[in-house]
Amino acid sequence: MGYKSLADCVADLEKHGHLIRIKEEVDPYLEMAAIHLRVYEQQGPALYFEKVKGSKFPAVSNLFGTLERSKFMFRDSLPKVEQLVNLRSDPVKALKNPFKLPGIAFTALTALPLKQSLFKANFSKTTISELPQIVNWPMDGGPFITMPQVYTEDIDKPGVLNANLGMYRIQLAGNDYETNKEIGLHYQIHRGIGVHQSKANAKGLPLKVSIFVGGPPSHPLAAVMPLPEGLSEMTFAGALGNRRFRYFYDDEGFCISADADFVITGTVYPQENKPEGPFGDHLGYYSLTHPFPLMKVHNVYHRNDAIWSFTVVGRPPQEDTSFGALIHEIAGSALPKEIHGLKEVNAVDAAGVHPLLFAIGSERYTPYLKERRPQEILTIANHILGKNQLSLAKYLFIAAREDNEQLDTHDLSGFIQHVLERIDLTRDLHFHTKTTIDTLDYSGEGLNSGSKVVFAAAGEKKRVLATEPPEGFVMPADFSSVKLAIPGVMALQLPAYTSARAAKDEVALLEEAVKGKDLSGIPLIVLCDDAEFIAQNINNLVWVTFTRSNPATDIHGISEFIDDKHWGCNGPVIIDARKKPHHAPELLKVPEVEEKVNRLGENGASLFGVI
């Protein structure tokens, strides 16, 4: 569908039973987020909030809440867009060779951005404080824009085709921000906007920023889409939405998306930061307060029929999970074409995306040897860990496709077991220490700082994974519970973590306790605060294990050793996944707010039969 606006999309979804209106007045402080979370958990419809307390603007959320609904919104354009994204060459070349690639050429040509000044009449002005002040979690530093499209241009190559459109969170108020005049701009490393700001800083010039909210659903999806080099987000938005990205420049030279519902313009000056956060983030914890770029607001525009678009960020799965699923549908085959020998890679959503990657690659280096070991897949692993956002990962489990052609990185339990059956713990763990990890991950030594490890597996099975604790195993005195989370993975519940020194002592106690026991079927032991919780399901296991540990400091091993600076162990690997004093607090729902939400599910209320 070629939606002309967000209102057009809302009407289409409502017509086809994909959207429900909430007619009761709702509070943007915690209540709207709680409603969204409750409906998302039921895989319910998109939500249109008619009356937002304190604002004249309605709001919509959960547009992308299911893959089915996401595909429905782009039902007429997905096949041709998949062609465009998977094109290996520069998309501009397709325009120069229309007879070789007629479909792609037509798609790219009709998707080129359209500049027209007559769109200016569609906008009025408002202020930051008149926008819906949505706060998702009780410890959040203030209201945030959670579905923004942040537009910046390259100061050396201005223009829409060289611009960057990204989704970076925006804090509207709170902390030390001057009301209606200043907002916070948080972006993570390796982002396009960072390149633009660096260039502006080098020239001592302010960076012009336009923040779009709303518009056709192709626009926010374009902002998060990993696109091939040479294909701009604005062109992609036009192709996906069957409608060219329409824009103009205001009197101050800021780019305005003509189809956006809201546009905030402002400038970011070199080295001018203010504290931003906390914010409940997609790892399931708060990202804490840190200095981030300060944006000085120039104007706030809105369409006459404007709808505020938002989502709720928290422990996966959330609406951004469906975003990821749709991105995989569109571009899932593009990355393997870029990395020779890679079959597939999965940034594991249940573990918060960045902490954990699963990958399958080819292992063809020495086909003349009977016994195979990880070689080619190690080069693939290094390539993955140097690739854009994938470089922020902490744990990478990679396996050889030749050992099981049906292996699937989205089968979390099956994939972990496949690796653990084959891995040589004396040889196949490879660490990268004192390096860069995700900004939102507080398991390391500081902001953006931590370590990585590759678990590589190739060859025949080396062990049969145990389904019960080893016979005769008696836990040390302070260890309170033991569970087999999945075959081969034993969860041990310990007292709360106090220090690295104490953790080493506890590992020594465990090593003494298992001396003489057959641990051949248990290659991985997870130390945790709640063994019962970890053992409940695979999502709990990967979330706790990989979000609460930093490989270099929290991986230990039974009979561990260092040989020529390579770490290995002759017994199980141990990951200490307990909460640490330096970790950020996890996100918890507020019971009083949950009670308020219940009223909307009563007979006669807007969400009766939905929640």
- The share of residues in extended strands comes to 25-35%
Work out the radius of gyration.
Answer: 25 Å
Structural class: alpha+beta
The number of helical elements comes to: 18
Runs with pLDDT <50, length 5+? 88-93
Structure notes:
This protein is of the alpha+beta class. It is 26% helix and 25% strand. The chain contains 18 helices and 30 strands. The strands form 7 sheets. Strands 5, 6, 7, 8, 9, 10, 11, 14 and 17 form a 9-stranded antiparallel beta sheet that branches. A hairpin with an 8-residue loop joins strand 19 (342-347) and strand 20 (356-361). Helix 6 (102-111) packs across helix 9 (233-241). The longest helix has 14 residues, at 500-513. It is globular, with a radius of gyration of 25 Å. The chain starts with 5 loop residues before the first helix and ends in a 13-residue tail after the last helix.
Write out key terms for the chains shown.
611 residues; 9-stranded antiparallel sheet; globular
SSE arrangement:
Layout: H1 6-15, E1 19-26, H2 31-41, E2 46-52, E3 59-61, H3 67-73, H4 78-86, H5 91-96, H6 102-111, E4 114-115, E5 123-126, E6 144-145, E7 148-152, E8 164-166, E9 170-171, E10 182-185, H7 192-202, E11 207-213, H8 218-224, H9 233-241, E12 246-249, E13 255-257, E14 262-276, E15 279-280, E16 286-287, E17 290-303, E18 308-309, H10 319-331, H11 334-338, E19 342-347, E20 356-361, H12 376-384, E21 395-400, H13 412-422, E22 429-436, E23 449-457, E24 481-486, E25 489-493, H14 500-513, E26 524-528, H15 531-536, H16 538-547, H17 551-554, E27 555-557, E28 560-563, E29 566-569, E30 573-576, H18 591-598
